Batch of 3 targets.
Target 1
Amino acid sequence: QVQLVESGGGLVQAGDSLTLSCVASGRSFRGDRMGWFRQAPGKERQFVAAIRWIGGLTFYANSVKERFTISRDDLKNTVYLQMNSLKPDDTGVYYCGTANRTTIPNVEKFFDYWGQGTQVTVSS
């Protein structure tokens, strides 16, 4: 079975950095697009960043460009999200998802599997 396990969340202050990890298992993800989404209290789940497993082409939401970096380690089947200059608006539950094809929009409904999420809280 496909499993995605996120880790690395926590409570930090504005301006701090944090790195999230997503370990994927259960099948080959070579043809997939891996993505990070976040959901703030009372709001819908929003796209943050994504990466094609093969080739490493990346995509970012405008709100996180130049601050966040998505990457993947093929040997470890792990996707990372490095977050710098964190703001209170970055607070939310961060989810890792996978889409089984690369030519899809970066929206929630096109992703097939999700992890349980990891909480990121940024204080002022």
Target 2
Amino acid sequence: QVQLVESGGGLVQAGGSLRLSCAASGGTLSSYVMGWFRQTPGKEREFVAAISRSGGRTYYTDSVKGRFTVSRDNAKTTVYLQMNSLKPEDTAVYYCAADSFYRSYLPGRTSEYRYWGQGTQVTVSS
């Protein structure tokens, strides 16, 4: 029901920064918990970050803690992933995901998100 479109990917030098955006349409953004995942060829889709409906809680995979920040602007129906101190191992296709099912915790599994964007490529050169 909600449509998600990622943008902001590109090529960046190691140590640089990039901000990804996920624009949502077809629903009220505050109704959804939002997540970011990434996938490299040959590997499973990996959880990166999640943010609660109000933006009050966040959850990150250990490898990005201290470097990435997820935020949301429900009025603009947009979720962001600010990526700093990028490393070559951050290279992947990044996906935005949404789910409306109420949980007391922030989901970090692909099966816990119903709606997905098409992905945006992030390439970090060394």
Target 3
Amino acid sequence: QVQLVESGGGLEQAGGSLRLSCAASGRTFSTYAMGWFRQAPEKDRAFVAAISGSGALTYYADSVKGRFTISRDNAKNTVYLQMNSLKPEDTAVYYCAQALYSSKWPTRDADFASWGQGTLVTVSS
């Protein structure tokens, strides 16, 4: 089925930027909303951002609003997360996920499924 591979993580200084990528091997990538989640050390997985299949609609967690930007390039079957003004609290393993249902806007975490191994983002002070 669909496989998601995250990349772009690394070590960055507070205030810096990183751009994460999620490459999908999906059959109908453009018809599915995509999301980014993160899991910080000793914490539960948290929602970060979501984008509709066409890219027209986006939604962000309050903690990253104004700093992170989710985008997608359907021609490349790739979704991105541009992270600016990084803070130490952004340190986490970041995962991308595809919505369970095509052409349907997800409204809760359970509407997503994750397939990637995640990419580690570490932000130092």
